[in-house]
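[User] Once you have settled down, look closely at the record that follows, and write a paragraph about the fold.
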Amino acid sequence: MGAVSTMEGRGLLITRVMPIIFAEDVAGVRDFYVSLLGFEIAFDSDWFANLKAPGNDAAEVAVWQRDHDLVPPAVRGQGSGVINVVVDDVDRVFAEAERIGLPIVLRLRDEPYGQRRFLTRDPAGTVLDISTPIAMSPELFAPE
């Protein structure tokens, strides 16, 4: 049995989920996502940038100045985790990442669970897991 929502039946509607990257250099991280993945700038200031994927307002990411006064002191300086970005052509993005000299955390490879992916880092140090869905490996379903 899977997880059961404690909000079921309470009328909760999730309208937006947006990862936020804390960065020293907001403009540099913003430009990274614009140039590598084609995000468009929806809002831009010296301490905050909101980026959206062209034609898909639900796919967005934000960049905050790590030490800005509006960042709660309890989370200032914390790491950003991993952002998974699913694209239609991971090979093309990997080629661009190599061309521009990005650090490759995990080289492009096929995973048995149905992803072709690679990992890199943005200028703030956030790990990006960039992938394209592929067929799952038959061995994944083989009886033991």
Notes: The chain has a mean pLDDT of 85.
